[in-house]
Amino acid sequence: MPGPLQLTAGVRFDSVRLERSRIARFKVTTRLHHRESASSTPLKGRTLRLQSSPRRSDTRGGSLRLFDRHRPVLYTPFAVLLAAACGTSSAETPAASPDSSLPQHVTVLPPPPDSVEEVVDGRTVVLSNGVKARVLGLAAPAECWSAGALKFAKDTLLGKPVRYSRASESAITLRLADNSDYATRAVSQGAVRAEKDDPVLSEPEKTAEKAGLGLWGSPCKGQDTTPTTSTPPPPPATTTATTTPPAVKKGCAVTYRVAKEWAGGFHAEMIVTNHDQTPVTRWGLRWRFPSGQQIRETWGMTAYQYGPDVMAMSQDGNGSISAGGQISLRFNAATAGPNVTPTAFTLNNTTCSFG
């Protein structure tokens, strides 16, 4: 005899006896036993005894009778199974997990450099963004050396990437791919002449003139028009003269020039010269603005300003000025009143001469 069978709804069958010979029709008589005498005891926890009956007098075959202390109620086997199924607990549907994907970070790259699409002459260019302007500090090409200036500009600039900064409505400064200044390179190689009294380009021009480079060599010899061939004058009489050697300069010198002014701002250029016989390493240039000027943009240096005091250093923080050499520094600044020129400068805590 098989043991008690436990249904999901909590109904136990003590025994089930079925006559296999009467498969087509049978009756199950259920005797219900209570632990409690109250008739309202729920179905769960009750013990049911099922057995087959061969009596012919009961024609309700295939039905299940539940006997309680009240009137018997008929249940079909399907009803019992339905009651058992209703007692099962349904599985909970897991909640959808929130989207935990993180936002993607975007790296903003700096704008690409412009390029020179056309070279008009030795100092005028047209950029890829449509800007047409002259290079600040360069003189207008003259008849004798204009062709050489145009060739130098095309070889150096045409189709090459450059970065520019406006000094005025019609003038710009150009930085090449190696971060060098185009005006300084052109003047130092004698391709063009610097504008008159330009403090930034005067030293590179003297160097080119001394070496006889470009327009300072043949045939121009520094002239704006091609000189005519003539018989050279006789050499002067040789005289012995005692000359006093120039005094050796020491320390440093600073020239300061306002190249352009506009309402509320200006563009300034400085030349720092090292007169010592040893290079100046990790240079730092200090000065004070006397009328509240505020630096906005710099070229060739990194500047820190605290009120009127300014500290400038090389862009890589480890620059040097060679013995007898110089560096060119430029910046744009804002001003709310008169633009008074600073005159006191120190280089690595050494006072520099001005002018």
UniProtKB/TrEMBL annotation:
SMART domains: CBD_II
Annotated region (Disordered), positions in chain: 34-63, 194-246
Bias (Basic and acidic residues) ranges: 194-209
Superkingdom field: Bacteria
Gene3D superfamilies named in the record: 2.40.50.90, 2.60.40.290
Domain CBM2: 245-355
Name this polypeptide is given: CBM2 domain-containing protein
Native organism: Lentzea indica
